[in-house]
Amino acid sequence: MHPQPPSFDRPGAPAPQPSAEPIPTVEDALALGLTRSEYELLCEKQGAPPNAVELAMYSLLWSEHCAYKHSKKLLRTLPTQGEHVVMGPGENAGAVDLGGDLVCAFKVESHNHPSAVEPFQGAATGVGGIVRDIFAIGARPIAVLDSLRFGEPSGARARYLLDGAVSGIAHYGNSIGVPTVGGELYFEAPYEHNCLINAMALGLARRGDLVRSAAAGAGNALVLLGAATGRDGIGGASVLASSELGGGAAAQGEAAPEHDQDMRPTVQVGDPFEEKKLLECSLELLRSGLLVSLQDLGAAGLTSAAAEMAAKGRVGLEIDVARVPRREPGMAAWEVMVSESQERMLCVVEPADALAVLALCERWEIGGAVIGRVTDDGRLRVLAQGALVGDMPVSALVDECPLYDLAPRKPPAPLYPPPRATLAAEATPAAALLALLRSGNICSRRPLYEQYDAIVQSRTVRRPEQADAAVLALPDGGGMAVSIDGNGRRVAADPYRGTVEAVLECAANLACAGAQPLGATNNLNFGSPEKASIAWQLGESVRALGDACRALGVPIVGGNVSLYNEGPTGPIYPTPVIGMVGRLPDVRRAGRLGFQRSGDEIALVGPFAPALPASELAKLRGEPLPDGLAALELEAVIAAQAAVREAVRANALASAHDIAEGGLAVALAECCLSGHLGAQVELGDELFARCGTQPGEPSASWCALFGEGPGGFLVSGPAQALSELGRCTSLVRLGTVGGGELRIALAGTRLSLSLDELGNAHASLGELFA
User: Fold this and answer.
1) What is the rounded distance in angstroms from the CA atom of residue 706 to the CA atom of residue 433?
2) Domain ranges across the chain
3) Hey, which of 158, 268, 296, 393 would disulfide with 132, CB 3.0 to 4.6 Å?
4) pLDDT tens across 500-527, in order?
5) Known catalytic membership, residue 65
C-alpha cells in the first residue's frame, strides 16, 4: 500500500535551513551554456550567486531548448486565434473543435540530438514524450506521425540511424497501442551528422474534459506519478558533477556516486509499457475529478514541470527531493531536479484527494508519491530531507530569461554544396522517371510503415500510400485528416517561398482527402541562430509561416523549435515541419490517391507552374540550389484546394493527388501504382506555356514532366464531374485511366513503362532494410 501522504505544514515542523554547499563560479555557469551576462543577470534576480542546485535549474530553464530565447520574439508574430481554437500555444498541446463537443489535441516536437546519439531510444522517447503531451491535457492519444531526415542513403551512418529510429518509433507506438498513421522521410547530405526526428501526436477528448497545467490552491499537494527517477537524460548540468558541485547527496545522508560514468549525460531510456499504464491512470484520475492540474515531465524534468506549473498559476511550489522515488542510489538534489527520466507526470491534488490518487496509482501499478505542496509566495523551493537546497523566484526562472534579437543577413554565397550527380547526362525521360521513383526522397515508404501498427484502435480509414493524408473515423460518422510536411531542400533555396510551399502542401494533402483545415502545429529545425545567415533563414521562414497560415485561415495552436542543428560540414537545411489537422463531414467519402476505375478521365487541376530549379530531378543531375524559387499565385492555389476539397466531399472524383516531389510524371506513376491501373496521357501546349517554354525547346519536355511547384492536383473521375470541377478552377484534361502501363506523350516524345517496371523502381527503399 502507498504510505500516508506526508504533510508539509505539520505544527512544530522546523523551518527549512539553507544548505552549506560550495557555490559554483562563473566558469561553471559558462560550462553549462550560460553566457557571462546571463550569469550576472541571474545573480541579480537571485540576490546572490546561485548554489549548485539553483545554477543547474537556471541553466536548463534559460537554455535555448526551454526558453526559446532566440525565437520567442519571432513566434509571437504567428497567428494563434481562430474560430475552431479551443486551446492555443502555452499548454502541453493545442486543441481544435471538431464539433459535437469533441476536440482534437495535437502537437509536434523534435528529438533530434538524442536520436543522433542513440537512434532507437532517441526516437522511441520522442514518441513517448509527444504522447504524454496529449494526455497531459486530458485527451486520449489516437495517432502518431513522424517526420524524419537523414544523410544520403548510400552512407552507412544514415542507414544505421534510419533503422534505429524507425525501430524505436515502431517499438514505442506499437507497444502503447497508438497507431502510427503517416509521416514523411527525406535523405539529404546536410542531415548526415544531424538527423531530424520530429514526432506528431493527436488525441480526442470531450471539450469539458480538457485540463490545463497551471498549479493552483495554496496548500494543495504536489504528486509525482509514474516511473522512478534516474540519471538518464541529464544533459549539460552533468558538468556540475565533474566539477564536484553536485551537492545535496550529503544533505540526504547518501554516498556520492563512485564512477564518473554514473554521472555522464545519457539519452533517455523509454518504457512504453510503463507509459501505457501512466496514460490510463492519468485519464482515470481526470475522469474521477481528482486532479486540479496535470503536467508532463519532459525537457529539464521536474525543474521545468514544476516551474511552468507555478508560473502559469502565479503561485509558488515547494518540493522535497528526498520524497522523489528513485531507481539509482546517491543522486544529488540537482540530479533529481533535472533528470529527464521518462514516463513521469506531475499533478496538483487537493489534500483530501491525495490518498484516492495514490490508491489509483497502486491499482494501475505505477509509482505515486506526494513530493511537495503549492504555496502562495511565488517561489520555487527545493528541499532535501527538510533542508533548503534551492530557493528561486518562479518569475525569474520562467519569464525573465533574456530574449535576443537576431542579426539576420542573407548569405552572400551558397551555404550548401551541390549534390553528387547520380543521373547520367544522356538519360531519357523514361530512365529519369525510374531514377526518380528509385530515389530516396520519392521511393515507397512501405518498408517503414509496415513496421508500424497503423490500424490499432480501429479508427484508421486511410493509411500511408492510400491517400495524401491519413484519415481517422470520428464517432459521428465524420472524419479527421492529418498531414505532416516540409521540404528542406526548397526552403534552403528560398526560406520564404519554400516555407509557404510547405504550408500549402500540408493543406493540399488535406484537400485531397476532403478535409477542411482547422489548425496547424510546427517544428522549426534550423542551425545556429547566432549566425547571420541562419538568423535570416529562420526569420524569413517564420514570416512565411505566418503569412501562409493567415491566408489559409489556419491558426497555429502549438509547436516546437530546435536550433543549433549543425555538423562538421555546416548547418542542416532549414526545415520547418508543418502538421495540419482537418475535418471531413463523411468519412466514407475520404479521398484516395490511386486511380480507381478504367475509363475515368484524368485531369490536371490548379495553377500549377512547374519549374526545374530545386526539384528532385535537379538534385539527381547534381545541380546547385537556385537563389530563390518562382513566385506563386497564393490566392489561386488556395481556391484550387477548396475546389478539389469540395469535389472530393461530393464524391465526384475517383481519386485526387497533389503534385509534389518529382513533378507530374511521378504523380502519375504514384496514382497508377496505388490503384494498380495504368494510364494514357498526352501533355499539350498549355503545360509547356506554364513552364514558360515552347514545345521545341530542349528543357520543355523535362520541365513539363518533372518540374515542381505548388498548386497542382492530379484527379480522375467521370467526364461530367471534371467538367463541373473545371468551372471552379483551372483544369486541363490529360487522358484516361486503364491498361497495365503508364504512357505519356508530349512534343514528339513517347514514354511507356509497365506497372511492374514502375513498381520495382518504387520499391528500392527495401534494400536499406535487407
Assistant:
1) 8
2) 592-770
3) 296
4) 999 999 999 999 999 999 999 999 999 9
5) yes
